[in-house]
Amino acid sequence: MKSANNTVKITIFILAAVCGTVLIASLGAGNMNSCAEYKKCEQEKTCCRAEDSAKYQKATFAAGCFWHIQATFDQIPGVVSTTVGYIGGNTKNPTYRDVCSKTTGHAEAVEVIFDPETVTYDRLLEVFWNIHDPTTPNRQGPDIGDQYRSAIFYYTPQQHQAAVAYKQKLENSGKFKGRIVTQIVPAPAFYKAEKYHQKYYQKKGVTCSLPAVVEDEKVSKTDEQWKQILTPQQYRIARKKGTEPAFSGKYYKHKEKGMYLCAACGEELFNSDTKFDSGTGWPSFWAPASKDSIKKEVDKSASMTRTEVLCSRCGAHLGHVFNDGPQPTGLRYCINSAVLDFTEEKKQ
After folding, report:
1. Active-site residue identified among 35, 65, 100, 208
2. Which of 107, 122, 206, 240 is deepest in the core (most CB within 10 A)?
3. 314 annotated active-site
4. How far is CA 175 from CA 93, 107, 222, 340, in A?
5. Residues 185, 304 within the same domain
């Protein structure tokens, strides 16, 4: 009996040392599950009381880059804590690189713990719909992919009802020119993002904040971010101006109809109608999708003078352009497969 008592004392001591109180469990869907998980220990150095945590509720929103969402919700009175992470996909414990691969189905999102006596769920919905464009499927400004989709993950029937009603109110108001594509779905498991993503604005003073509608925003990311988003080969070519071996790329013999995109940012680069077999071993095109989709710079590397081709949106190195192509332009845009994505032309 004495040993059991000592075990209990040790357990309570450990919990108190970490969080300042005993673990609080089973508070119901949408409510705060534990002091250790949700209270602002690091920021406020305060004790989490059972009578406080029991009244807290949880909301989760996806609205593009999660740095931006977290920085916004952190400013709302009544928000107790926020955590950035991944939700809505089919991969357990995904990493940022996994999510950026566009194969997990997860969205970048922010889990918000709030005090409903101070801030209502409707107020959080108002903030959510004001900080992003809910009419662009799988895109917010320059960020493209299903991880940037607009979504509300609800925990209770009341949250579901409130989200649907608010969405209908916005649609009736005509505030947005396009159709609202925000998903309103039950909240599945939420996976906390890596530590360096948490409170990014507080640590770096940088967010990916965007106005409500952004069409031609340039993509600007740190070197570390590009390393997380791109494969090693893509990073070497796109950011370090490398070249893939001839006849090795997946698109040099590709003949499907559609659009070739920048693998780094999703910018439309080349239409398949301008693609031709140059015999060089790299995908070749006689014209870009539009004059604004690429930019050119003089390249004097490798003891020669060439014209480098870059993505106009993110600055990714794509390849080079030469004056030995077919008519009507006489140009050959020699492009690395590794820095391209492809979207097939929809069948009529």
Report:
1. 65
2. 107
3. no
4. 37, 25, 34, 36
5. no
